[in-house]
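Technical annex, item 7. During the second reporting period the consortium partners agreed on a shared format for inverse folding records so that results from different sites could be compared directly. Each record opens with the tokenized structure and is followed by the designed sequence. A conforming record, contributed by the partner at site C, is shown below for reference.
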């Protein structure tokens, strides 16, 4: 299969829509990361996503729509609770996925056999145009090989999936840089399953109490079934071994400089760069959490380009605001390996 690199114009988006209608796979830009799309109502097309990515079949997908009315139009859910309408009014279109009890037309391949389905209305003109032109909901996880850092450019998609998918639309660099927030309304109170650009604080400001799933900041139990993408498996990982250092500013720098080697690199803040004597990749200024989110996956992919790097020591983000989302991705990139240098 030859993967077509399509332009972000009417003619090429229409070509991508036809590929989806015919059961093919298309990499599409969104405001979060690039998604790998298939017709969400076609189980054979959806199955191709798992094969192309090497994705475990028990990892559910997100269904993308182009307007709120698509939920009823395509019979995606069995009921729409009031809190779903409130979230939609406040955050859709945008980087948030809402899990609801699924409707009769949603294939088990999309929901990984669960009785729920994840729905998202992206805030990206190209993604929305593609969904409208295809005239169908699009199931789409991130457009990368399973376990590797999520793609934030079309070139990232090509690097991972060239020859495995039909096409990718080059819509430039993604604005947010991390996957969407995932919240389930299939229980009460609602529960945050994956943090993202729409923070816990923002959610609670409009619908009240929201629980945080233990797997957001910790490893999911081995026998547990993931209710959301990105919960169970080691994710977002470069080829180098990532270790998170829980340390103050001085101890972080001292520990890394004591281990000076061409095989070591650091994921740090701008304030650290002049003090470090190893290859370094800055997330941005220490307090700029949105910048950290935007830069993280680009950094993890850039690290992969340096074949000499074997170990990467990373700053440990705070788990407030968007920092929770950055920590959630980093802890999985590190395979949950955290070294605590803080003095008790």
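Designed sequence (site C submission):
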């Amino acid at each position: 299969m030859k993967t077509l690199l399509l332009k972000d114009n009417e003619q090429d988006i229409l070509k991508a829509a036809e590929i989806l209608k015919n059961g093919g796979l298309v990499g599409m830009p969104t405001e979060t990361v690039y998604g790998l799309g298939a017709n969400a109502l076609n189980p054979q097309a959806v199955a191709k996503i798992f094969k192309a990515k090497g994705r475990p079949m028990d990892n559910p997908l997100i269904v993308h729509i182009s307007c709120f009315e698509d939920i009823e139009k395509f019979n995606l859910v069995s009921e729409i609770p009031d809190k779903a309408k409130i979230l939609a009014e406040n955050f859709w279109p945008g980087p948030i996925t809402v899990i609801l009890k699924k409707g009769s037309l949603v294939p088990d391949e999309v929901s990984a056999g669960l009785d729920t389905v994840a729905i998202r209305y992206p805030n990206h003109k190209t993604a929305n145009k593609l969904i409208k032109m295809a005239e169908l909901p699009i199931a789409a996880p991130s457009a990368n090989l399973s376990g590797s850092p999520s793609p934030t450019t079309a070139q990232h998609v090509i690097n991972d999936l060239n020859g495995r998918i039909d096409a990718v639309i080059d819509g430039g660099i993604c604005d947010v840089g991390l996957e969407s927030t995932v919240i389930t309304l299939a229980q009460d109170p609602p529960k945050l399953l994956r943090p993202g650009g729409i923070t816990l604080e923002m959610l609670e400001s409009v619908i009240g109490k929201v629980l945080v799933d233990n797997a957001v900041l910790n490893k999911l139990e081995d026998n547990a079934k993931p209710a959301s993408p990105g919960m169970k498996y080691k994710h977002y990982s470069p080829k180098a071994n990532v270790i998170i250092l829980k340390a103050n500013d001085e101890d972080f720098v001292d520990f890394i400089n004591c281990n000076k080697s061409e095989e070591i690199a650091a994921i740090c803040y701008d304030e650290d760069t002049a003090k470090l004597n190893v290859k370094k990749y800055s997330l941005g200024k220490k307090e700029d959490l949105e910048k950290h989110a935007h830069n993280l996956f680009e950094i993890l992919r850039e690290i992969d380009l340096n074949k000499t790097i074997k170990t990467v020591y990373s700053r440990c983000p705070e788990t407030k605001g968007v920092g929770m989302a950055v920590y959630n991705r980093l802890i999985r990139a590190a395979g949950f390996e955290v070294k605590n240098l803080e003095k008790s």
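The mean pLDDT is 94. The radius of gyration is 20 Å. All partners now use this format for quarterly exchanges.
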